[in-house]
Automatic annotation (TrEMBL):
The lineage of its organism: Bacteria, Pseudomonadati, Bacteroidota, Flavobacteriia, Flavobacteriales. Pfam families: FemAB_like. It comes from the Bacteria. This is BioF2-like acetyltransferase domain-containing protein. InterPro entries: Acyl_CoA_acyltransferase, FemAB-like.
């Protein structure tokens, strides 16, 4: 059901298509693909089980000044793998002992951010606005919306993936009973401006890592790569979905299953800015990779891998090097690899970018218990590699 609700300084919409074009024009946020109408509409269209809410904050003159993307999902505690980082496995134990979270019934979780992508993709703020005030107004607007709409029955609120530079703003959420905790970092590779071709990247590596890279390239030499287009995507989606599910099943924690039919909309609306490739051994698809070019970055999205063949043919490593080659060829500045497989991503040069989430349970007593628990949460440690040669700053150029 579509609606437009409002309070004194916020408008609420249940579909991105209900937001008037005048609001998009004033916000002027589409340069960031994650806040473009096309990107958001594609996600919304293909995920009918998720309840989407969009918040537009307005100023005293009723002009839009900020935008927030919200998804409401059913989160089953039982769906979380016991091997996941200590945070979730301990939370399950505490939750069951104290009966603070439903065991069989799903937890109704309101998420501000993008359910399917790591990073700060939930809140857009126009320039020349006080970001601390905006974050407070957003917290109040979300609470107002939930209190007014009795059908929602939200159990908990999650604002996700703030980088360290944003914490002085996001920490304002603590005044609204949100609890901060660290999660697995986003692995980021800075593209050196001197890398004009992929061989320049390899040349920048220490011998040990360059040998490893060349071995992976050799193992994967027989793999053929095919660009996914609007003409061939229909034939490829079933096998891509099968491969994606293998990766998703291995993942310890998912807020939601991604519907790969979304890729068709991405290719239609984002064109060359959406990267989608499949990997083949003769006539057998053994993997796929996806990603978006957003401003000066290439953001890796989902991949699919035939794990039985991964070690023999270095499929995943080939994908990582393909992301790097694409970024170099397109003169991009960074690659955001996301927050899984941190160690292998560090071996190709990515470094961790800390991320913080803010969680609040609707019940105050439960929230206090949660606060004590979250204070002890730390991301799973991993071995950080440093594959590049150190630069002697005293060298003369």
């Amino acid at each position: 059901m579509n609606f437009c609700k409002k309070n004194d300084n916020a408008l609420f919409f249940s579909s991105v298509n209900e937001i008037p074009n005048t609001i998009w024009d004033v916000l002027n946020c589409a340069e960031n693909k994650y806040f473009s109408k096309d990107f958001l509409a594609s996600i919304e269209k293909n995920h009918s089980k998720i309840n989407f809410i969009y918040v537009v904050l307005i100023d005293d003159k009723k002009q839009p000044k900020a935008f927030a993307s919200i998804q409401i999902v059913d989160f089953y505690l039982n769906s979380v793998d016991n091997n996941f980082e200590d945070f979730i496995s301990k939370l399950k134990t505490v939750a069951r002992k104290l009966h603070i979270f439903p065991d069989k019934k799903p937890l109704k979780l309101l998420i501000c951010g993008n359910t399917f992508v790591s990073g700060e993709h939930g809140i857009f703020i126009k320039k020349n606005n006080d970001k601390k005030i905006i974050i407070k107004e957003l917290a109040k607007a979300i609470l107002h919306f939930v209190n007014v709409d009795k059908h929602l029955k939200i159990d908990a609120f999650l604002l996700k993936d703030f980088i360290n530079e944003s914490l002085f703003i996001a920490d304002e959420l603590k005044d609204y009973s949100y609890n901060a905790f660290s999660v697995e970092p986003n692995m980021v590779l800075q593209i050196d401006g001197n890398w004009k071709i992929f061989d320049d990247y390899l040349a920048a590596m220490k011998t040990k890592f360059r040998v490893k890279a060349k071995k992976a390239i050799q193992l994967s030499a027989t793999i053929q790569i095919e660009n996914v287009t609007l003409e061939n995507i229909a034939n490829q989606l079933p096998k891509m979905t099968e491969l994606y599910k293998k990766v998703a099943t291995n993942a310890a924690f998912n807020l939601g299953d991604f519907n790969l039919a979304t890729y068709k909309d991405f290719k239609e609306k984002l064109g060359e800015n959406y990267i989608l490739k499949t990997y083949w051994l003769e006539d057998k698809m053994i993997g796929f990779m996806s990603g978006i070019i957003n401003q000066n970055s290439l953001d890796a999205h989902f991949v699919g891998i035939d794990y039985h063949l991964n070690r023999e043919f270095a499929i995943y490593q080939k994908m990582l090097y393909n992301y790097i080659e694409i970024a170099i060829n397109k003169n991009l500045k960074t690659i955001n690899f996301g927050r899984t497989a941190s160690e292998i991503k560090s071996s190709v040069g990515a470094e961790p970018q800390d991320l913080t989430m803010y969680l609040r349970h609707k019940k105050s007593i439960t929230n206090k218990i949660l606060k004590l628990f979250l204070q002890r949460v730390q991301p799973t440690p991993f071995h950080q590699h440093f594959p590049f040669k150190t630069i002697n700053l005293n060298e003369k150029h």
